[in-house]
Amino acid sequence: MSSIFVTDAQMPRSLAVIPSLGKRGLKVTAGEETKFAMGFFSKYCKQRITYPSPQKNKKEFVDFLLKTLRKNDYDVLFPVADTCLEPIVSNEEEISQYTSIALPPSKIFLRAYDKGITLEIVMKNVISCPKT
């Protein structure tokens, strides 16, 4: 059975992701910085992990995440919200040594995630769009 680690279990989006994966027979571990995250109470959440705040201390979060990934055999890391996206993307190379990340490679991801870069691409007429 494949094992997936879903971050940001408090976010409403996670409440869609966790059951969707669980219904497909995947073992879902949910992570969040609070012990009472909504996603922890899903019947499809098989394991709960409370991690350091990625917003307050990115380094501590990444260190904890790497330690967790080393100790457990997760097939995929599924970051859900912005607070985890940035530290995960910034540490993609090291994290990818332990699991796959459910995101495109960082260079591609950042082109869509960073609105300034997206606007630069649009302004060069690489993507057609209305002037407004």
Please describe the structure with a list of short key phrases separated by commas or semicolons.
132 residues; alpha/beta; Rossmann fold; 2 domains; five-stranded parallel beta sheet; 6 helices; 16% strand; globular
Topology diagram in text:
Elements: E1 3-6, H1 12-22, E2 27-32, E3 45-50, H2 58-71, E4 76-78, H3 82-90, H4 92-95, E5 100-101, H5 106-113, H6 115-123
Parallel strand pairs: 1-2, 1-4, 2-3, 4-5
Helix pairs in contact: 5-6
Given the helix and strand composition, which structural class is it? alpha/beta
CATH topology of the largest domain: Rossmann fold
Number of helices: 6
In percent terms, what proportion of residues is strand?
15-25%
Task: Please tell me about this protein's structure.
There is one protein chain. The protein is α/β, with parallel strands linked by helices. It folds into two domains: 3-101, Rossmann fold; 104-132, no CATH class. It is built from six helices and five strands. It has helices at 12-22, 58-71, 82-90, 92-95, 106-113, 115-123, and strands at residues 3-6, 27-32, 45-50, 76-78, 100-101. Strands 3-2-1-4-5 form a five-stranded parallel β-sheet, covered by helices on one side. α1 (12-22) links the parallel β1 (3-6) and β2 (27-32). α5 packs across α6. The longest helix has 14 residues, at 58-71. The radius of gyration is 16 Å and the shape is globular.
Quick gist of this model?
The protein is 42% helix and 16% strand. It is built from 6 helices and 5 strands. It has helices at residues 12-22, 58-71, 82-90, 92-95, 106-113, 115-123; strands spanning 3-6, 27-32, 45-50, 76-78, 100-101.
